[in-house]
Sequence to fold (466 residues):
Amino acid sequence: MNKKAIILLSGGLDSITCVAIAQSQGYAVHALSFDYGQKHNVELECAKKIAKTMNVSEHRIAKIDLGSLFGGSALTDDNFNVPEPKNVDEIGKTGVPITYVPARNTIFLSYALAYAEVINACDIFIGVNALDYSGYPDCRPEYIRSFETMANLATKIGIEGGRINIQSPLEKLTKAEIIKLGTKLGVDYSLTSTCYNADSHGTACGKCDACLLRLEGFKQAGLQDPIQYQPKV
Amino acid sequence: MNKKAIILLSGGLDSITCVAIAQSQGYAVHALSFDYGQKHNVELECAKKIAKTMNVSEHRIAKIDLGSLFGGSALTDDNFNVPEPKNVDEIGKTGVPITYVPARNTIFLSYALAYAEVINACDIFIGVNALDYSGYPDCRPEYIRSFETMANLATKIGIEGGRINIQSPLEKLTKAEIIKLGTKLGVDYSLTSTCYNADSHGTACGKCDACLLRLEGFKQAGLQDPIQYQPKV
Fold:
């Protein structure tokens, strides 16, 4: 039987790459996605397509009502607009972005930890990377390490002599390096969605932080982004 | 304006005591309860009564579908029965109990952390105590401290020079000491529910781990437990 890994699968470029990495290392992938009232719900449809296409062992979707419970982020709260930076160099230069969802990765990893305990998996993959921790506190390597320490004190696996590993294989990679690595592993990036502000058909805006970083990543990797963008006006 | 605290309010004896402690220290209490498919749902009704009677500033209830998502505990899964130990000395002697819910406190504290960030509170109270960490990994002091370290790396408050404190004021107290302290602070323990196995009217079984520890606590404190128990058969 293959060793099992939990992968936090958002439906974006980073998480699909994590699925490919875990599978290339021989893990049976148990994907976990969240329906947390995100405005860009097309993500979840992408996560389902990815899970199916990449033949994961299991895909669970946890419905968590973060938006209406807590509010306070441009990603879940209709009172905020997703910002459109002028260019890619502007991103992450002004402290914690308005698109930060309070304690989001901590909540996601906590669910992944519960899932890991129930199915007796010791590895949890999360697709945080270098570009993200310019602004988001819960994407930084020191955060991931401290979550791992806590996880081993929190759980039955941890106190009974096992070890929970929080794997963040994209941690030190740029978007271009991630795209090149995924492409080498056969990832089909047309299955993914990245945009914070996609239209009702799921077509990316091409203007938000996430779109600009994605487009720049493909450009630097010398590859064509296979997804559709809204026409520029 | 009073400083704010988030209190994890289960509706039990420990969490009501935490509300009283926080209020006695001048905090405005923001209570957070969870509807997580627990069999002993009377807890949630108790939490609502406590919040109202003790005039908390706000009471939010997060619905999280742990039971059907993950299963694996006698508290949420109908395939398990809640055990009935022969006596109070038997409790916590046989490793992690079957009533352990995987990563439960980690998930609860993660939500509390999100809530704290949104309302700009720096203090989170959790009613873990000495008796609990005989068996539950996520009730131990070293777990609480490691969650706190992680929380300060995870959040906007933490990286912008603030500090999140996870307060566990019952950590070193026995049940009897908690009951005596709460009674001194004017806590009405008739508002609480502790039983893992209450009947449809919310009447406690008097036989599960939680009931035995509660009854023993009142006995050692020299006080009368004001709640009703099912008649012994």
